[in-house]
Amino acid sequence: MATVVASADAPRAQLTEIWETPRGLLGTLTSVDHKTIGKRYIVTAFVFFIIGGLEAAVMRAQLVHSNMHLVSPEAYNQLFTMHGVTMIFLFASPILSGFSNYLWPLMIGARDMAFPRVNALSYWTFLLAGIFLYSSFFVGQAPDGGWFAYVPMTARSYSPGLNIEFFTLGLIYLGMSTTMGAVNFIATFFTMRAPGMSINRVPIILWGTLTVSFLIVAFMPALTVASIFLYLDRNIGTHFFDPANGGRPLLWQHLFWIFGHPWVYIVVLPAMGLASDMIPTFCRRPLAGYTFVALATVATGVVGSGVWVHHMFATGLPQLAMSFFSGASMTVTIPSGVSIVAWLATIWYGRPVFKVPFLFMVGFIILFVIGGVNGVMTAPVPFDLQLTDSYFIVAHIHYVLIGINVFPVFGALYYWLPKMTGRMLSERLGRWVFWLMFIGMNLAFFPMHITGMLGMPRRIYTYPSGMGWDTANLIITVGAYVFAIGVLLFLIDVVRSLRVGPLAGNNPWDAPTLEWSTTSPPPPYNFAVLPTVRSRYPLWEERLHEQATSIVDRGPVLDDGRETIGTSALDAEPTAVLHMPADSPWPLLLALALTVVFYALLAVSWTWTGIGVLLVFICLVGWLSPSRTAPAPGEA
Amino acid sequence: MATAAAVLPCNAYASHSSGRWAMRLLIVTEASFFAYLLFSYFYLGSMASTWPPDGPPSLRIAGPDTVILLSSSATLWWAERAIKRGALSQLRAGLFITFVLGAVFLGLQAVEWSQKSFTPQTSAYGSLYFTVTGFHGAHVAAGLLMNLVVQFWAWRGFFSAERHELVSNAALYWHFVDAVWIAVFASLYLIPRLA
Ligand code: HEM
Q1: What pLDDT, in 10s, does the model give residues A48-80?
Q2: Separation CA A384–CA A393 (nearest Å)
Q3: How far, in Å, CA of A608 to CA of A602, rounded?
Q4: Which of A39, A623, B17, B25 is 20 to 30 A away from residue A409, measured at CA?
Q5: In the predicted model, is pLDDT for residue B75 greater than 60?
Q6: Are A179 and B29 a contacting pair at CB < 8 A?
Q7: pLDDT < 70 stretches in chain A
Q8: How far is CA A226 from CA A149, A229, A241, A306, A523, in A?
């Protein structure tokens, strides 16, 4: 029976029994708990960040001096391609999915995501797609066509190995994972918010992730189509990109950038959301201009989806790729301008407390502005023509991506890891981490602007002496290693914190949102009683002297099986008691079956592809079979 | 103390239930997928001097086939309407007829494929023709498999007036696949005739 009880009286043991994943291997492989999945996403994406970083470290060692021969040109091509692919596809966006997965239900007062099993599937497919991409190193044929793999360089005649198959199939597979995640976020946003949490009361990260989820659903398929075409051209002799038979290499560029433009927003909007949710805590006041920030977030998504069209008509396709990041950052200027003004106003009118997460926020804002400025510099086309394919572009890419993604992510790790582990990280080490990363990053990437202007092209594995590039390259490499030491120190801090970090308690930052009302780490059922929300900052109501009265310490328990409350899309009026699925082996099995399909396609073996598809079908039937044990309507 | 939650309906059977959301969003992303396929078709067409190279494809098979596929949407609608009233046998019949019509569609398409004078390897047009119709065909096949699964449960007597979410979701998917065919048919068969 759904009765209202005080949080202290809730039957916690019973809830734990209902929601807890059993320990042991089976539990590990079948868990559908969003907290487990979110943590897995974060850890896995972070491992990819480190792998991508090691690739960068090798590249920088190779480039530290002229005429170095640490790696061959072929190896260098694979290194920068896999570094780009890893950072963009396996780190920047999945780590944000990880945060959203972990935080959303806690922030909106629910007990899980809308589709817990799809959630598990999207994680397993992410992991396996990453492994698929990296298995290319074992046969020495990693993707080597750059992260955007332009045809005809990647056509069979120029690239005979399996390198590009790993790329196209890997991205198709990863795209499936991303899309499932997006579907889950959209459905969760519109059905799972706690009673009373109308859409103008959700934390900004929800707006960010919601917007990018729509972008993913609409634009990811363009990359899938492009990859399928390239796979078919290379393996069964179709002519999509073959000019001799009516195809066009430019078709690849169109499809890739239809997807590529929105992708910049996909790695930035949730990160900006995380920032908008952290800054108020450290300024001890609500976010200034919540409504504008939320609207600007959605507006970026809408405007961003049109950038490709604009480029197509305004600048023509050849410039399309060059103006990619600059055009993207120009568009982002509008909402990022709004957000920056909102953040600065929050800081100005607040009483900033310079804890480590806040340091990362300040670093983020600074890098964001620098990235924006040099983005505006690259925008005029003639200037662009000179700098494209020079190190200026490499500098710009990294200022944008590290500024808008890595710094907010590290801030978020310092802020939310205590919620996930129950233990605080060290303030003192954290400051070192911040300064090492901040100084290292500027040392590494600022001089690239100069080598770029001195004419050093990107993607070269070595360079002759006497070009005047040596000193700058030495500084760049030193900077890269300083940055790496910062990351290493962070890992040490995490290990230390897990063992001896001070206990965090429910709300170590005295933060305002729902995730801080439950224990750290949260129990398997998240909330013993389901909260009712009446304002944006439920835990700050008293001190903000708001009339609103959210209720977090009393509420329905819902303990007849895995249950949570479903609410209406806009106003979050309760509409149903949702039965959530139990742990299940099918997500992992389905992901494994899909992996069979992709390896079979890699080997161009139709028999095995057929077997794989059959396995996929069997898993789907197993998964979808309606359960007869579900309570009949009216019962429960 | 009883609350509002006590009188809330149990999910799973309401129309806003999660399966419905999943299906809707799957459809949105699949629709985008086909939009990019057709974009590629029109893009390469706009660059070519003659498109299609051998003139517009014949409607001899594709015309009747279109009628067959669209009527399968009608029969499925009839079946779904039946289960809303709890008429299980009409549901079974409707699902069965829909399956037969869908299978005939695929069979006729196979015949049409075999009669083409070109292959996917002949030219970019051939590549597109077979890829677009092939992916659509694969979606029809997926719809047929779904149909089989739903039929299996229908014969086991699983569905009722209150509980038929699976039927509705499968039906939504099938209607979508038919709608895609209209777009494919218009792009590949009809529009070339206008030129
Ligand atoms: C301190 C850490 C990093 C270092 C030292 C570094 C270094 C490099 C180097 C040396 C290149 C190749 C330049 C060339 O030869 O053209 C490169 C390319 C690239 N990096 Fe990084 N990088 C770092 C972090 C990141 C991060 C965090 C991201 C994204 C989130 C990223 C994204 C990219 C991309 C997209 C490319 C272009 C790859 C291509 O040309 O296809 N990098 N980076």
Answers
A1: 999 999 999 999 999 999 999 999 999 999 999
A2: 9
A3: 10
A4: B25
A5: yes
A6: yes
A7: 1-2, 306-332, 372, 374-388, 626-636
A8: 11, 5, 10, 19, 44
Concatenated DSSP letters for A258-324? HHHHHHHHHHHHHHHHHHHHHHHHHHTSPPTTHHHHHHHHHHHHHHHHHHHHHHHHHT-THHHHHTH
Indicate which residue's Cα is closest to atom 38 of ligand 1: A84
Kindly list the domain boundaries of chain A, sorted by start residue: 4-635
Residue A602: count of CB within 10 angstroms of its CB: 22
Q: How far is A196 from chain B (nearest CA, A)?
A: 13
Residue A140 neighbours by CB under 8 Å, 6+ apart? none
pLDDT at B2 over 50: no
Predicted confidence (pLDDT) per residue in A571-627, tens digit = 898 888 888 888 999 999 999 999 999 999 999 999 999 999 999 999 988 887 765
**Cα–Cα distance for residue pair A268/A93, rounded to 1 Å:** 9
**Choices 3.40.50.720, 1.20.120.80, 3.20.20.10, 1.10.645.10: CATH for B60-194:** 1.20.120.80
The ipTM of this complex is: 0.93
Q: Which CATH architecture has domain A4-635?
A: Up-down Bundle (1.20)
Residues A4 and A555: beta-carbon distance below 8 Å: yes
Contact (CB<8Å) A634/B44:
no
pLDDT value of position B24: 93
CB–CB of B149 and A621 under 8 A?
A: yes
User: Which of A235, A238, A254, A613 best tests the B interface by mutation, with the highest count of B CBs <10 A?
Assistant: A238
Q: What is the pTM of this model?
A: 0.93
Task: Please give the distance, rounded to the nearest whole angstrom, from the Cα atom of residue A394 to the centre of ligand 1.
Answer: 7
Q: Which two tokens stand for residue A380?
A: 């005029």
- Contact of A626 with chain B, judged by CB distance below 8 Å, is answered with yes
The number of C-alpha atoms within 13 Å of A316 and in the hemisphere containing its C-beta is: 2
Q: How many CB pairs under 8 A join A and B?
A: 165
pLDDT confidence of B15, banded at 50, 70, 90? very low
Q: Among residues 19-48 of chain B, which lie with CB inside 8 Å of chain A?
A: 21-22, 25-26, 28-30, 32-33, 35-37, 39-40, 43-44, 47-48
How close B41 gets to chain A, by Cα (Å)?
9
> Testing the interface with A: which of B127, B133, B148, B158 to mutate, by most A Cβ within 10 A?
B127
pLDDT in tens, B134-164: 999 999 999 999 999 899 989 988 888 888 8
Closest CA to A556 of A7, A17, A12, A19: A7
Instruction: Read off the tokens for B88.
Output: 């299980």
